[in-house]
Design goal:
Layout lengths: L2 E7 L4 H19 L8 E6 L20 E8 L4 H19 L6 E8 L19
Parallel strand pairs: 1-2, 3-4
Antiparallel strand pairs: 1-3
Helix pairs in contact: 1-2
Length: 130
């Protein structure tokens, strides 16, 4: 169950924001073996002071269209899978929304299955107590 947080400057349309969510989700399905119906996203617009970034970190020139993607997911994906995912997201956003590839920052936060509760105050993926 990936939990996706998408942060961008306020002012983008609901359609634009929804399309970002769809592109990211499809890339997770295609590249990270996430089930199609496993979709949990928070998409938030921020004021310029509320979304700060270095416009030239690591020699990458970022614009005010820069978006942050923070995805918490179960550990176990290979480096190759992650690299394919990063490319798919940046390319999909570029082709469908004309978002510059330089303006896509992605952070994957890996956790163990026991770190999730899907409701009812239970850790559904935890091994039963013995």
């Amino acid at each position: 169950m990936p939990l996706v947080r998408i942060d961008l400057l306020e002012g983008k349309t609901e359609e634009y924001r929804a399309q970002i969510g769809e592109i990211v989700h499809q890339a997770m399905v295609d590249c990270l073996n996430v089930p199609k119906d496993d979709r949990f996203q928070v998409i938030t617009g921020h004021s310029k002071k509320g979304l700060q970034f270095d416009p030239g970190y690591l020699g990458i020139r970022r614009s005010d269209d820069c978006i942050f993607l923070q995805i918490t997911l179960n550990s176990g994906r290979t480096t190759e899978m992650k690299q394919r995912f990063y490319r798919a997201v940046a390319e999909g956003l570029h082709l469908q929304l004309k978002l510059r590839r330089e303006d896509v920052l992605i952070s994957l936060v890996e956790v163990e299955k026991v770190d999730w509760s899907f409701g009812n105050g239970e850790a559904q993926y935890a091994n039963p107590a013995r």
